[in-house]
Structures are given as structure tokens and as C-alpha cells.
Amino acid sequence: MTEYDRWLHENLDDPDLTEELRSIQGKPDEINDRFYRNLAFGTGGLRGVIGAGTNRMNVYTVRKATQGLANYLNAHGKNPSVAIAYDSRIKSDLFAKQAAAVLAANGIHVHIYPWLSPTPTLSWAVRYLKCDAGICITASHNPSKYNGYKVYGSDGCQITLKMADDILAAINALDIFRDVKRMDYDEAVKSGMIRYIDDSVIDRYLDEVMKQRAFTRPCTGLKVVYTPLNGTGRVCVTRILDMIGVKDVTIVPEQEFPDGTFKTCPYPNPEIREALQKGLELCEKVQPDLLLATDPDCDRCGIAVRHNGEYHLMTGNEVGTLLLDFVARVRTEEGTMPKNPVAVTTIVSTDMVTPLAEHYGIELRRVLTGFKYIGDQIAELESEGGADRYVFGFEESYGYLSGGYVRDKDAVDASMLICQMAYYYREKGMTLIDAMEALYKQYGYYENELLNFAFEGEDGMRKMNAIMDTTRNNPPKQIAGYDVVGWSDYLESVRYDGDKTSPITLPKSNVLEYRLSNGGKLIVRPSGTEPKIKVYLSANGKNKEESLAEVAKLREAAPVLLGIQK
Fold it and tell me: Which of 23, 231, 463, 486 is deepest in the core (most CB within 10 A)?
């Protein structure tokens, strides 16, 4: 009996799954796509398309993963507890409650938010409630057909590779139907095994966010349009803006309330202009200083800025650079800069922050992609007694954090800081576009771009792996007509500079970086959450036009490097 047949004949308790399984009878490609593998579990937990099968997000794959987590926790401590949060996605509340019911059946106490809540509030709850782990049901900014299951350690960071491997081993030892313990959710609530997280936890979280504000004077008169993109951000973001004195906030009506179908933003990612279109249309009517957008789980924040009567979208690299400069500038002005300050960003984020950090005497640390690695640096500083040394961290994919109260990117904190920054420059007669231009003139015109090459299904995964292997084994001598003067293989942990080699001390990761003779750079990595290869382009020219021209050359060269037909 195939796994498909086993699922088809199982008495499933989610009728949606039975209906889907019957609909694909006699369709081998459809069956194969759902069953050719188990949904991958790693440091990012699970993420996949919602549906029936072992390669899908459903109550059975969620329960199995949770049983594996339960076995791990019970093997590593006594009386463990877990915090759970969930976002607005399809079946998020169901998956959260099913995970809670499995944990309760295994003798693990659960603290669960009774309403959908931002991802950073889960990181906060894990530490505030002294839990041993956390689960957040979310697929972040992916399209509506996706959902996910993030796992956090007791430090509020997403789990380490070692913990992920150990949990995966526990998961792999289980039969998806026979080996999972469950109890009735309502009975678990009555027994006290599942407890709802009360409002005071969110109040304390917002108090901690407020401690990260750059200055205490209210941002009187700042006008904002805000869209939570039908996700979790509305309550926390509007509360924090009110707390810093931003009273004139207009919420995009079509995207104000939770809706896992994301009807007006099929790809609810603030990096993408289409997701902000409704907000931009409202800006033309309201004429705010700023458009703020947070993704469905409210850990990423995108903005558009009014400048010369038009609204300009700013990239994650630009906002990250502006925020690092703003935090350093204001803390220097107010005498609150710590001794030996530290900022953290990723290997794929803009090189522009290197001279900027040097200007302020900030130690800049670069880590692998994924905010958990920034969280690890905060934890390391805390363990050394230097938690206050951390001043800011960001990744180019719109994730920012200015304090160690959580260990994940936080769009509530980012929304607060961005509004304070806009107010600060408005007092000087400048927009954020003006402020960015001033930084370009001071540190150089750095231009960055991200390319995505998608590969769906089993064949797509094989093709992705083959492309990475071929590219790794055949390092180019030239890209876009420029000599490759050095390259790094983060999987092999080696940096090559001409005839010299040096070790890379970061954890191993399937990333290739090529440094060019003109100062440009190209980085290749498979996405950890989507079936994509991402290519990061970077150029530094004498002016904006020259930088854009150099990036355009790299854009043309990238498919050639990967052997992909355009």
C-alpha cells in the first residue's frame, strides 16, 4: 500500500483532506507532489502549501512535528512548558490548537494567545513566561496557500541547528497516525494544561518596545497611512504609534482586518510594490508623511515616503542603513551610546553600513541570513554581561530590531523607530529620501538588488540542488565582464582571495559569494523557506546612475552564471 492509499483509507478528522485526496485519484503527478517527501523540518521549523499529504501543512504533519518536539522536551528537562502564537493565515488557529492539544497530552503545559498575535510577541512570551520552547504558526509573507510552524528555544530565538536535528530525529521515529498523543483541546483548557496568555503580557511587551524609542518627545503632527496587510499588526502597531504621539493614523480599510486569503495583496510581502498598492492609492487621498506596511505576522516592515509630492518605496537595505545611522546619531547626541557598541547585519545586506559603522565607532558583525543569527549575537553579548552594547540589527529583507527584549525581528519596534526617524528629519526640513541621499553622498552610492529564480515540485528541488552543485564546482573567473577577485563557499567554510585561503567561522550554509574587481558582489543562496534560488547583487559606483548601471550588468549575468535560460 502506498502512503497515498494509506491516507485515503484512513479515517481523517479533517474533511478537507479527505476531499482533496479523492480529487487527485488517478493523477500520479498530483499524488507524487504531495507524498514524494516529508515536509522538511529545520531551524525555521516547517513551511509548505496547505493540503493533504506528507509534503503539505495539515493537522497531521503539525501534530507529528509537535509530538517530536514534545519527546525532545520531555527528554531534556522536567515539567517543560511551551508558548504558542498564530497569525491570520488559513487554518492557523486550528494548527495552533492542535499543537497545544498534543503538548498537553504529553504532560507539557501550554501558554497560548487567545487571539492572533505578531511573531515578536511569541519570542517575548517565551522569555517573559520562562517557557522551554515556543511555537508560532505562520508562513510570514508567503502567498495564502502557505502556512508554517516556527519553533523557538527558551532564549526566544528560533531553534539552533543542533536542536532542529534532534527534534527531526524524534519526528522521523514516529508514525504520523499511530504515534501521536492527543487530548481534547477544551478538556486540556479545563484541566489547566492549556492556559490563555492574558493582556498584561502584551502590555509588558509594548512597555519594552517603548524603552527602545530614540527620544521621548512626542511625534506631534506626523501623519501616517498604515496597512497590516490583513495580518496581525493592527492592534500592536496602532497602540505603539499612539504611545509615541502619532495620533493621525489612517488604516487601509481593505487590509485592516485578518483575512488569510489576502484578496487585495496575493503576495503579502511589504518588499513588493503590488502588496502596497491599496496603501499607495489611499496616500494620494490622505497625503500622509509616510506609508507603513507590516507583513501578516508583523515581523517585517516596509515604507513609502512622501517626497516632492510623490510616494517613493524604500528598500530594506536603505531603511536598515537609515535606522542604524538614526539610532547612532541620536544616541550620540543624547549621550546614551554604550561603550563598545555593536550592530549586527547579514552577509547579504548592503556593504554601505560598513563605513557608516566605522564612522560611529560601532563594531559591525555579519552573520548568516536569518534573524535567529542576529538573536544569537544578542544572546552572546548578554552572556558576556554586555547586553547594552547591542544598538541595532537588521537584514535586507525588511527585518529590524533595536533591543534585546525579543530575539526576532520586530515590525512593531520598527514602525515606532521609523516614525520617530521621519519626525526627526521633518523637524530639520528633510524627508527620509533627503536623509538617504545625504548618506549616499557621505558613504558612497551603494545599489543592491535581489533576484528570485523559482523551482516548483520534486523536479524543481533536484534542479536547485544541481545548479548549486554545478556553480560551486565551477567557480567563474569573470562575471558581467569583471574579474572575480575572490569568492567564498559558506558550505565548505572557506574564503578564497587569489592564491590565499582563510576559514569562515560562521555556521555552514549553502551560500556562494563572488567579489568582483569593480567592487561589486554577487551572492547565491537557496531560500530556506521557499522553492527559490536567491541572487543578491551589489554595486558601488561614483554616483547613483553608475551604481544602477553596474547592477543592471549583474542582473543580466546572473542567469548565465547559474545556467538558467532567461
Answer: 231
